[in-house]
Amino acid sequence: MDGFWKGAALVAALWVAAVPGRAQTAGPAAPDYSQDANWLCRPGRADACAQDQTATVITADGHMTHEAFRRASDPPIDCFYVYPTVSLDPGGNSDLTPGREEFTVVAGQFARYAARCRPFAPMYRQVTLTSLHARMNGTASQPPDRAMPYADILAAWRHYMAHDNQGRGVVLIGHSQGSVVLTQLMQEEIDGKPAQARLVSAILLGTNIVVTDGADVGGTFQHIPACHAADQTGCVIAYVSFRDSAPPPPGGLFGRALDPLSQKIFTNSHALCTNPANLAGGAGPLHSYFATDFGAWAPAGFSWTRTPRTIDTPFVTTPGLLTARCVSNGDHTYLAIHVNAGTDDARTRDIPGDVIVDGRLFPDWGLHRIDMHEAIGDLVDIIGRQGATYAAGRR
To answer: Which superkingdom does the taxonomy of this entry point to (predicted)?
Structure first.
C-alpha cells in the first residue's frame, strides 16, 4: 500500500510540473506568430495537418475496408489547437522547431478536424516530456519556465484574432497541458468577454474542468456552459477517461473538482464529463480512430485483429468496439470506456492507452494517452454540426 501512495504522490508531482503557471513577471519575448515557421498548421499549407488520415475500417466479423479522408475546401469555422506534453527537446521548455513527436501528435489528435474547420496549431515552448521523465527518474534537470507556455499561446491567439479570424467562429481544442493552457486563455480572454461571441465550442480533454453541482457553470468558467447537444454552440466538451474496469483510485488527481493551475479544491462541485457519444446523457458507441502502429504505447505483440493481419493505412477505426458513459464515483467524475469485443468478435479484445513508464502502470492517469483518439470521430462530427448552427445564426 505504501508503494501505491508513493506512486500517487509521484504522479501528483509530475502533473503539477507539467501544468503551466500564471505569468507573474515579464519573461522572454513571445515568438513572432506572423512567421509561418512558428505554426504547425495553417490553412492552405502542406504542413502537419496535411498528413495522411486514411483509415482501415475493421468490423466485428473481421472485414476490412479503406476509408478515405477529405479536408473541407471552404469550412465555415476555424479550429485552434494546443497540443499536449510531447516534446523530447532537452531542458525544461521546448524550442520552436517541430520534431517527429509534434507531427505525430497532430496526426493523431488534430489533423482529422480539417474535415470541418480551418486548422490553426501554433508551436509553443511547452514544458517538455524530457523534464518530466527526469523528475520520474529522480535525476537533475533544468527546471521549466512554467509561465512561458501560456505566454506563447496568448501571443498566438491574439495574432490569430487580429489577422486570421475576421469574425469567424472558432473551436478551441486541447489535450492535457494544451487543455490547461487553453483553460487559462478562456478565463482571461473569452469567458464573459466580447470574444465569447466567436466561440463555437471548446474541447478540453485530459484535465479537470470544474462545474458547480446542479449547474453547467461556476468553478472553472462563469459564462461558458457544458455542451448537451451537437447543435449547441458556445459550450464546453470536457472529460478524462478510464477503463470501466479500472476507475480512478482514491485521491487520484484526474476527474476531481481540482483546479490544475491553482491546486484549489472546489466545494459543492465536480469535474465536468460530457460524453461525445451521447451529449444528452447516457451511454453511446464511440467513433474512434487509432494509429495503426501504437509503438511504445502497445504491449508486445499487440494486433488490431485476433489473428494478426497486415494493415496498410496509418489509422484504424473499429465500429462498435468501444462504448462510453459518464460515471460519478466518490469524488471522481469521468468517462468510463468499455471494450465490447465478445467471443465472436474478430478484433482485439483490448486496446492500448494506459500510462506505463518503465514497465510501471500509473492508475491515476487512466486512458489519458487516448482521450482524444477514442472519440475523435464523434468530436469531428459534433463540431461539424456546431459549425453549421453557428454559421446559420450569423446569416
So the answer is: Bacteria
Angle of helix 2-18 relative to helix 129-137, nearest 10 degrees, comes to 150
Contact 95, 89 (CB under 8 A): yes
Residue pair 368/176 in contact by the 8 Å Cβ criterion: yes
Q: Are 158 and 106 in contact (CB under 8 A)?
A: no
User: Which grid cell sits at 202?
Assistant: 471548446
Query: What digits encode the pLDDT tens for the residues 103-131?
Result: 999 999 999 999 999 999 999 999 998 88
Kindly compute the dihedral angle of the four CA atoms of residues 363, 369, 126, 54, in this order, to the nearest 10 degrees. 180
In the block, which residue shows the cell 487509432? 290
Q: Cα–Cα–Cα angle for 219, 222, 198, nearest 5°?
A: 130
Summarised one tens digit per residue, pLDDT across range 292-347 is 988 767 888 899 999 999 999 999 999 999 999 999 999 999 999 999 998 999 99
d(CA 316, CA 373): 10
DSSP assignment letter at 240: -
In DSSP terms, which residues pair with 66 in a beta bridge?
Answer: 56
Nearest to 292 by CA among 348, 343, 244: 348
Residue 18 to residues 129, 147, 178, 328: CA-CA distances in angstroms?
8, 11, 10, 26
CATH class, range 33-53+72-276+367-394: alpha beta
- Listed by start position, the domains of the chain span 33-53+72-276+367-394
CA atoms within 13 A on the CB side of 224: 32
